[in-house]
From TrEMBL:
Lineage: Bacteria, Pseudomonadati, Pseudomonadota, Gammaproteobacteria, Oceanospirillales
Organism (species): Halomonas qaidamensis
Protein name: histidine kinase
Reactions it catalyzes: ATP + protein L-histidine = ADP + protein N-phospho-L-histidine
Record-linked PROSITE patterns: HIS_KIN (PS50109)
Boundaries of every Histidine kinase domain copy: 409-622
């Protein structure tokens, strides 16, 4: 029984699959047909508009030269030369015709006598000049010599260029009733400009004459082809007129597939330059010249529209089918859910009660956890504040440690002026007893100068020992380095250390905390001096340069340098290469941390010539708009 049910279900599914597939095919086919008709209609409208405009353009282009032969035929110079050509120089007339050709924009202008011989021409100076040629076989001559106006199109006998010819009779005596023209003036117009404008269109345009010869075409390889194959008699007749010289007049290979409206066909090409293409062809007559103008619009947009419509229809059909299947499936599932919901309603009620109890218990746990987390956050905040305070105190302690190292030199700097002050004071008292006031005044002046010197030394110590305000300001790099050097004046002088200062003449500026930058430079200079204690000729090199909007401050010595295996640990806290009791190993670690806080970095490298080089890198800052005036106060920004 189950096997029969499965077989029946499989048959129904197969039947539905066949029906849906046939419906999809029919829907796509019908949509493609409708899209094809609509696309062909739009293509035909576009082709008709383009064909009408192109025909009007060609007609207007040629007719604007229609009056030129008649105007030239009435010129006195033309008539005077035609009256007696043998006794006159033809050069003035040739030049006149050449100027007229250039002004009017035509190809050639020439004059035929009564016997159809060319006696003057605008191309008199060319190797293929018309002068001396006889054109009695041309219809533009036979029409004009009988008193009418001639028109002709074809290949030139000499130039083999396609052109359209306008001619008019030249009368020497038009008063007599039986007077006949004495010559013919001819104007040749090239058709290349019109064809170049056709090439810009998304279509193939060409013009055929009464013999179905393609005389003009936007596609160069279509020119001088026969629209349909010619018979031998038609080919002999055309060659007799010499209209197309000895051109082979190969068939274009066009094939008419089906008509589509009046003067409109669906065509293809079995051979020729358009081999393999399918087009919508429209034809429009140009009665003024006895021509037919054709346009070929590619059917590619029609094919694309068919595919697009078929795919969209198939997609829509698929969406509708899928929607129907989903709707039927949802209906079936809804019935199953209703039955299942009835069975589960009691279970859900029981679970709901248990869930409420569980949620209440979990809520109490979450409240307790949240309280513990808040306490931990507050404890972490207090720890971070203490850490920040400890860090600031550690930086200040490192600064005071450097200050202690400078104490001996500073003590020497202060002892000398103190001894001198005592000597000058004793001398001053003696001079006062001897009533030598001028000498006493000179000693007092020396005492004032020495006290000022001691005040400067004290001001430098106070400024260096003060705590950082962490205020960002614009700092002069050169002035900051010179200040740091002043703290080591006595030590540099007593130890015989040569100081090399290399920086540009223009002041370089950076943004940062002045006190912290001074502390970094003092630490680096102090370390460099300690590294050169055992060097015979110590040299301290201070260099400032700018590269890629970064200011690089280098402090280099010619000491033993940093061992290669210690370069990666040099900035770690409590790491030092000095002897025990000579330092805590915090100076470079604190200096590196300060540079990170200022948005820069501190690097170390050994020099090829010996010694270590520490480089401070900071972003370059713009020059301040207003420079602060010099000040002797402690909070000088070295600008």
């Amino acid at each position: 029984m189950k096997h029969l049910l499965r077989l029946s279900d499989l048959r129904w599914r197969l039947l539905w699959l066949i029906v849906i597939s046939l419906g999809l095919i029919f829907c796509m086919w019908q949509a493609a047909q409708l899209a094809r008709e609509q696309a062909l209609s739009n293509l035909q409208d576009d082709a008709e508009n383009e064909l009408r405009l192109s025909a009007a353009n060609l007609n207007g282009y040629l007719l604007r030269y229609d009056y030129l032969p008649q105007m030239l035929a009435t010129r006195e110079g033309v008539q005077r030369f035609l009256d007696s050509p043998d006794s006159q120089d033809s050069m003035p007339l040739n030049l006149l015709l050449d100027r007229f050709r250039f002004t009017s924009g035509v190809s050639d202008v020439y004059l035929l006598n009564r016997d159809a011989d060319t006696i003057a021409a605008s191309n008199w100076h060319r190797p293929n000049t018309f002068i001396g040629q006889n054109y009695a076989f041309r219809s533009y001559y036979t029409d004009a010599i009988t008193g009418g106006q001639g028109r002709f199109y074809g290949l030139g006998v000499q130039s083999l260029e396609r052109g359209y010819y306008f001619s008019a009779p030249v009368w020497l005596d038009d008063t007599s009733p039986d007077a006949k023209p004495d010559g013919v003036i001819v104007v040749k117009v090239l058709l290349d400009d019109v064809e170049e404008s056709w090439a810009e269109q998304d279509a193939e345009l060409f013009v055929t004459d009464s013999d179905n010869i393609i005389f003009m075409a936007s596609h160069p390889e279509l020119r001088m082809n026969a629209l349909y194959p010619l018979t031998d008699s038609q080919r002999d007749t055309l060659r007799a007129t010499r209209r197309y010289a000895m051109e082979p007049l190969t068939p274009s290979g066009i094939q008419l597939e089906a008509p589509y409206g009046a003067d409109s066909y669906l065509v293809s090409f079995a051979s020729g330059p358009l081999d393999g293409g399918r087009y919508l062809s429209l034809t429009r007559p140009i009665p003024e010249f006895g021509w037919q103008m054709h346009i070929l619009k590619p059917l590619t947009p029609v094919v694309n529209a068919q595919w697009l419509a078929a795919l969209m229809a198939g997609g829509l059909y698929g969406v509708v089918t899928l929607g129907g299947g989903i709707g039927w499936q949802r209906l079936r599932l809804r019935r199953e859910r209703e039955a299942f919901a009835e069975r589960e309603r009691q279970t859900l009620a029981r679970v709901r009660d248990e869930l409420e109890v569980s949620v209440e218990r979990r809520t109490r746990d979450l409240v307790a956890s949240n309280q513990r987390l808040s306490d931990e956050i507050e404890e972490r905040r207090r720890a971070e504040a203490n850490l920040r305070q400890t860090q600031d105190e550690l930086i200040q302690a490192a600064k005071l440690a450097v200050l202690g190292q400078l104490a001996a030199g500073i003590n020497h700097e202060l002892n000398q002026p103190l001894a001198a002050i005592r000597a000058y004071a004793e001398n001053g008292r003696r001079f006062i007893e001897l009533a030598r006031v001028d000498k006493a005044d000179a000693n007092l002046a020396q005492i004032v100068e020495l006290t000022q010197r001691m005040a400067d030394i004290s001001a430098q110590l106070r400024q260096f020992s003060r705590k950082s305000s962490e205020r960002q300001e614009t700092i002069s790099v050169q002035a900051c380095i010179e200040y740091a050097l002043r703290l080591f004046q006595s030590r540099l002088r007593d130890d015989g250390i040569t100081v090399v200062q290399q920086w540009p003449e223009d002041t370089l500026w950076v943004e940062g905390d002045l006190v912290r930058l001074e502390q970094v430079l003092v630490n680096l200079i102090s370390n460099a001096l300690q590294a050169m204690k055992e060097v015979a000729s110590p040299v301290l090199t201070l260099r400032v340069e700018i590269a890629q909007q970064q200011v690089l401050i280098s402090v280099a010595d010619n000491g033993p340098g940093v061992p290669e295996h210690h370069l990666g640990q040099i900035f770690e806290p409590f790491f030092t290469t000095k002897a025990p009791g000579s330092g805590l190993g915090l100076g470079l670690s604190i200096s590196s941390r300060i540079m990170e806080d200022l948005g820069g970095k501190l690097q170390v490298a050994n020099q090829p010539t010996g010694g270590a080089r520490f480089t401070v890198t900071l972003p370059c800052s713009a020059t301040p708009n207003v420079l602060p005036p010099p000040s002797v106060k402690e909070h000088n920004n070295h600008a």
